[in-house]
Automatic annotation (TrEMBL):
InterPro entries in the record: TR_Rrf2-type_CS, Tscrpt_reg_Rrf2, WH-like_DNA-bd_sf, WH_DNA-bd_sf
Family annotation (Gene3D superfamilies): Winged helix-like DNA-binding domain superfamily/Winged helix DNA-binding domain
Cell membrane is among the record's keywords: no
Cofactor(s), names only, from the UniProt record: [2Fe-2S] cluster
Entry superkingdom: Bacteria
Coiled coil region boundaries: none
Protein name listed in UniProt: Rrf2 family transcriptional regulator
Annotated source species: Pseudonocardia alni subsp. carboxydivorans
Keywords: DNA-binding
Pfam families registered for this protein in UniProt: Rrf2
C-alpha cells in the first residue's frame, strides 16, 4: 500500500513543528526546510487544520503550530485525515462490482490486515517518530536551541 504525498508531507510538517525551537513555523519555512512545493504544503496544512491536528494563525507571530501535544497525535489519525481511501481491494470500498464479492474470503483477510496496520499506526505517536530532536533540527537546518515548550524538553 502506498500513501499519497499529502500523507507524507503531513508527517513532515508535524515533525518540523515538533522540533522547531518555538513550536511553530510558516508554510514557507516548512516548505523550504523540506525542499517541497509551498503550494502543495498549503493544501496539506489546510487539511491538517480542518482535522484539528494543527492550528493556524495569520499576522505577526502567526503561522502553523501543533493543536495538541505530540504525545497525543497518532500516526493513524494523521493518515486517516490525509487519505481518503483505504480500500486495498474493491470489496472494502463503497462500490462493489466484483462478481465474487461475498462468496470469497479475500474481504475478511484484507479487512483484518487493514485493522492490524492501523493498530500499529494508532500506537505510534508524533513524539515517537520525531524523537531525535537534534538530528531533525540539523537535517531541517533549524537554528536555535530553545526548547519546544510543548514536548518532553529532550535535546537529543
Amino acid at each position: 500500500m502506498k500513501h499519497t504525498s499529502h500523507a507524507d508531507y503531513a508527517l513532515r510538517v508535524l515533525m518540523y513543528l515538533r522540533v522547531a525551537p518555538d513550536g511553530r513555523g510558516s508554510v514557507g519555512e516548512i516548505a523550504d526546510a523540506h525542499r517541497v512545493s509551498r503550494h502543495h504544503l498549503e493544501k496539506v496544512v489546510q487539511r491538517l487544520a480542518a482535522a484539528g491536528i494543527v492550528a493556524t494563525s495569520r499576522g505577526r507571530g502567526g503561522g502553523v503550530r501543533l493543536a495538541a501535544r505530540p504525545s497525543s497525535i497518532t500516526v493513524g489519525a494523521v493518515m486517516r485525515a490525509m487519505e481518503g481511501d483505504f480500500a486495498v481491494v474493491e470489496c472494502l470500498g463503497p462500490a462493489r462490482y466484483c462478481r465474487i464479492a461475498g462468496v470469497c474470503g479475500a474481504r475478511n483477510v484484507f479487512s483484518e490486515a487493514l485493522d492490524a496496520y492501523f493498530a500499529v499506526l494508532d500506537a505510534a505517536t508524533l513524539d515517537q517518530i520525531a524523537d531525535n530532536d537534534l538530528g531533525l533540527r540539523g537535517a531541517l537546518e533549524l537554528t536555535g536551541t530553545g526548547l519546544r515548550g510543548h514536548g518532553s524538553g529532550s535535546s537529543r
